[in-house]
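INFO  loader      accepted 1 record
INFO  loader      residues=175
INFO  predictor   begin
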Amino acid sequence: MARRSRRAPENEELNITSMMDMMTIILVFLLKSYSTDDITVAGNDDLQLPVSSSLKPPKLAVNVIVSRAQILVDGEPVLALEQVADEASGEMVPAIPADAKTGPKIDDLFEKLQAKAEQAKTLGQRAQSDEFDFKGQILLQCDRRLPFSVVRDVMFTAGQAQFGEFRFVVIKGSG
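INFO  predictor   done
INFO  writer      dumping tokens
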């Protein structure tokens, strides 16, 4: 019996069509399963979010940031907070300026949130879909060292501006 030598032909090219098909399927699978939550958390000394063991992912809504220095709505400054002495401890704590409020309602914040609510309602009507209807949801990023009176006034103002569903943004940690 004669032995045949197995030598590869010199002009044979590599066929990568099946490998490209496989890579395309993997890429489509990864793109479909990949999701992100677009919540901006400002990293500075004036904003330290509380730690929680919550497992709920954040949803997109109007983003209100209440730091120790100011209040922002969707990244735009609305009101600068003042520092006043705490009666009990004597420490300097943030407070809403008295001339910026009507009772517990913060006037500038109310106007900004009211405009956001009207804008969301208009977009919902144009889209003609339940998915885009105005739901009155608001994301609150509040510094954990804020006095409750500041958070209460912000929540009251948001409620007056048709935002009744509050979602507090926290840092995920072990509880």
